[in-house]
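Structure tokens please, single chain.
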Amino acid sequence: MQGLTDQQARLLDYLKSQERCPSYEQIKSALNLKAKSGVSRLMHGLIDRGYVKKLNGTARSFVVVNPDVEAMKAALPDEIELYRTIKSAPDKSHIGIARHIIDKHWPNLED
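Here you go.
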């Protein structure tokens, strides 16, 4: 996983394998960490990088998300309009690298 430390990647894999969000104590045990503060540090790293979202108001309130999808949802309307214009252009040969970049970042954006 790009941009993650080994421990963050292990934590993310562990979270994905669980049916519900585990407690910090459970995470500490699963990752063989010495303190819950280490879990907190790793969780905040995943939150900062967009792999996990914290939901306020409930215990164990973390959700694993796909940061690429979240970035796409946050895209500016102008970027989405540009993407749609490129996708609908009859002759795409003049678009070149711009089309490649847009398709890379928004492969599933609906027309």
